[in-house]
C-alpha cells in the first residue's frame, strides 16, 4: 500500500470500514438471495465437492491408499484452496460488478476487491469450522504446537490472493477476457497443488524418472503449494516428516516476503489504472 503524508489509501480505507462491511454483507446476501437453504449452501457446496473427490479419486482411483486419513487430508487442502479461489475470482470481477457505484460516486476503488476478500473470508470461516469438527470426530488433529502452522499458511493464501485479485480486478476493466482466463488458471492451480495427491508422490515420480531436481524446486515455488502443505501440518496429524519438503519454514518465509512485494506492486498498478475506470465502464 502507499503511505503518503496525508495518510494514504490505508487510512482512507479504514475510515470507510463501515462501507466495506456493508459491501461484504451485500455480497454474501446476494449469493443466496431467494434461496430456501440460504447460508447452509456455504456448507453443502464444499461437502458435496469433498465427497465427489473422496469417492472418485480416493476410492475408485485409489488415491487414498498412499495417504492415511485421506478424508481430512483432502478436506484440509480443499478448504484453503477454496478460500484462495473465492478471493481471486471474486476480486477479479468486483469492479465490473460495482460499475454503477464506480461511475456515480467517489470512494477508494480498492474497497470493491477488498470486499470480495472479506466475503471469501466469511465463507472460509464456515468451512474451517466444518474441518475442525471433522478432524475432532476422526481424531486427526496433530499436537497443538503443530496447529500453529495454520497462521502462516492462511497468511500466504491471503497475501497472494489479495495481490493477484487486486491486480486482475483493474486489468479486467480493460480486458474483459481476464475473468474467464482466471477461472481456467484457478482450476489448473488446484491440480498443481497437493490437494488430491501428496507432495511425496510428486517427489517419488520425479526420482523414478530421473527428472532434473529443478522441476521439484519449481513445483515448490508455488506459494499455494506451500500454503496447503502448511495447512496439512496444522490439521492432518497422520502426516510424517517425509510428507513435507525440507526447509518448509524458510520456503514459506521467502514466499511471504515475495508476496508482500507483489501486493505492493499490484496496488501501484491498480492505482495507475483506476483513473480511467469510469470511462471504460
Structurally, how many domains make up the residues? 1
Helices and strands: which structural class? mainly alpha
Oligomer: single chain
Describe the largest sheet: none
Shape by Cα distribution: globular
> Helices and strands, in N-to-C order?
HHHHHHHHHHHHHH
Tell me the number of helical segments per DSSP (H or I, 4 or more residues long): 14
What average pLDDT do the residues reach? 87
Number of strands: 0
Roughly how many Å is the radius of gyration?
20 Å
**End-to-end separation:** 25 Å
- DSSP strand content: under 5%
Helical content stands at: over 70%
Low-confidence stretches: 1-7
Structural account:
- This protein is an all-alpha fold.
- It has one domain (8-280).
- The chain is built from 14 helices and no strands.
- It is globular and about 55 Å long.
- The two termini are 25 Å apart.
- Residues 1-7 have low confidence and may be disordered.
Keywords:
14 helices, mainly alpha, globular, disordered N terminus, single chain, 281 residues
Would you kindly provide a brief summary of this structure?
The chain is mainly α. It has helices at 8-15, 17-31, 41-60, 70-92, 94-97, 99-104, 111-137, 150-174, 178-191, 199-208, 213-220, 223-235, 248-273, 277-280. Helix 3 crosses helix 4, helix 8 packs antiparallel against helix 12 and helix 12 crosses helix 13.
Amino acid at each position: 500500500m502507499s503511505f503518503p503524508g496525508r495518510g494514504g489509501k490505508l487510512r482512507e480505507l479504514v475510515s470507510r470500514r463501515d462501507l466495506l462491511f456493508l459491501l461484504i454483507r451485500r455480497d454474501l446476501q446476494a449469493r443466496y438471495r431467494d434461496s430456501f437453504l440460504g447460508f447452509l449452501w456455504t456448507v453443502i457446496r464444499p461437502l458435496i465437492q469433498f465427497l465427489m473427490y473422496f469417492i472418485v479419486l480416493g476410492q475408485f482411483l485409489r488415491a487414498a491408499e498412499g495417504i492415511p486419513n485421506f478424508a481430512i487430508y483432502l478436506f484440509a487442502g480443499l478448504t484453503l484452496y477454496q478460500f484462495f479461489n473465492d478471493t481471486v475470482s471474486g476480486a477479479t470481477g468486483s469492479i465490473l460488478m460495482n460499475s454503477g457505484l464506480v461511475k456515480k460516486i467517489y470512494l477508494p476503488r480498492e474497497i470493491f476487491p477488498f470486499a470480495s476478500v472479506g466475503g471469501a473470508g466469511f465463507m472460509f470461516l464456515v468451512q474451517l469450522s466444518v474441518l475442525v469438527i471433522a478432524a475432532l470426530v476422526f481424531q486427526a488433529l496433530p499436537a497443538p504446537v503443530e496447529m500453529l502452522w495454520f497462521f502462516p499458511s492462511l497468511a500466504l493464501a491471503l497475501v497472494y490472493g489479495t495481490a493477484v485479485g487486486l491486480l486482475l480486478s483493474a486489468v479486467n476493466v480493460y480486458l474483459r477476457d481476464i475473468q474467464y482466463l482466471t477461472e481456467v488458471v484457478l482450476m489448473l492451480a488446484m491440480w498443481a497443488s497437493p490437494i488430491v495427491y501428496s507432495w511425496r508422490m510428486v517427489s517419488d515420480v520425479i526420482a523414478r524418472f530421473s527428472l532434473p531436481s529443478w522441476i521439484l524446486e519449481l513445483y515448490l515455488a508455488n506459494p499455494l503449494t506451500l500454503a496447503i502443505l502448511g495447512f496439512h501440518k496444522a490439521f492432518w496429524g497422520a502426516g510424517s516428516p517425509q510428507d513435507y519438503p525440507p526447509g518448509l519454514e524458510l520456503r514459506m518465509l521467502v514466499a511471504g516476503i515475495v508476496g508482500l512485494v507483489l501486493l505492493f506492486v499490484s496496488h501501484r498498478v491498480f492505482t495507475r489504472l483506476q483513473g480511467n475506470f469510469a470511462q471504460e465502464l
